[in-house]
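Our collaborator T.R. sent over the components below with a one-line note: 'Predict the complex.' Nothing else. No constraints on interfaces, no templates requested, no preferences about which chain binds where. So this is a plain run: every listed entity goes in together, and whatever single assembly comes back becomes the starting point for the next discussion.
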Amino acid sequence: MKRLDLIFSERELDDVLSTLEKAEVPGYTVMKHATGRGPERVVTEDMEFTGFGSNAHVIIFCEQVTIDKIREDIKSVLSYYGGVAYVSEATPL
Amino acid sequence: MGHNLFIQNALSPPILFFFLGAIAYALKSDFEIPSPLPKLFSLYLLLAIGFKGGIELQKSGFNYPVIPTVIAAILMSLLIPLICFVILRFKFDVFNAAAISAAYGSISAVTFITAESFLESQNIPFDGFMVGALALMESPAIIIGLLLVKFGAPKDRPIKKKMKWGSILHESMLNGSVYLLLGSLLIGFLTSAIDPSDIKKMEPFTGDLFYGAECFFLLDMGIVAAQRLARLNKTGAFLIMFSIFMPILNAVLGSVVAKFLNLDPGNALLFVVLCASASYLAVPTAMRMTVPEARPGYYISTTLGLTFPFNIIIGIPVYMGLVNTMIPQIG
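Returned assembly:
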């Protein structure tokens, strides 16, 4: 079992979620209003009224085969708009 | 006269609340407004000015100077980004110059609302059709900014970053603020034409609450502007100077056009404010989607951290003085 963490601008959330749906991931968790600092920009809640400001953090638990299916589409979104994606091992409790 | 206008403006509740927000940030107070609320208030303000503008537009009809003024406003939002681009290219690459130019060619609805409140406090009449000009000035500036990138970008720009015109037009014409503003304008127009009694039902929401909501929103804008101002040192002196002098230059251009159109002083001030203001809503979101190479820190920090506070605190009374000089009030 793998854990995939995606952090990107909320504006791209629909694109990313539709990619996940197409790959038939078993489920995902979405946390909106994520803020912080990346190498190039600071993301704060103060610009949220513009629909520009905050990030979304999406967590997916799935098998490697599912990650292989969504890899290119996710990388394409993240390389264009910015954002990060990391895969780690996950062990059920 | 000019001095009095400045004092009256600086001591009006919306500006005082703006200061209150800015001072809260400067003094590191733990005061904050929960994040969904500013969004709600910005949507409310757009709905209310759109609705009221539609009612006024129905009353005044499409006689002179409605059509020429709206056309002039659109032309200004096409011209201003080109002037900005020429200036900005001395210091910035095509992507950043185009994105900042688009922001300055577009408008700030909150600056416009603050100017309307200023006119009301001075008992200077103005017309509702100016809201139409406000709504129609957002998109052309975005399109010009993107055209500047399209024709000015290096030939080796990655293919995946080439622009799709469908999404550009969708983003520029149907972004949330333009959509709500134009939709509310149309609803106000239809309501006034079909059943004016419905206007009374809306009055407590779009009329009585408006001034308080504006003050509350400006309280939050004070915090946001102060935060952005604190980050301006990263943008450099050139951009700081640009964000003060460009609105003044645009205001002078706008006042010349307003005089040529023979606008009343109230409408002339609103026209000048539209030319002088810069967008921090529609343009940044459009630019981020279509020009990811441009740094948001440049076009947001300048428009929100300097140009917006400059316009609402100093600009509006100065522009009123400019208008009064060029277009003497009758009576």
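Summary for T.R.: Residues 64-81 of chain A form the longest helix (18 residues).
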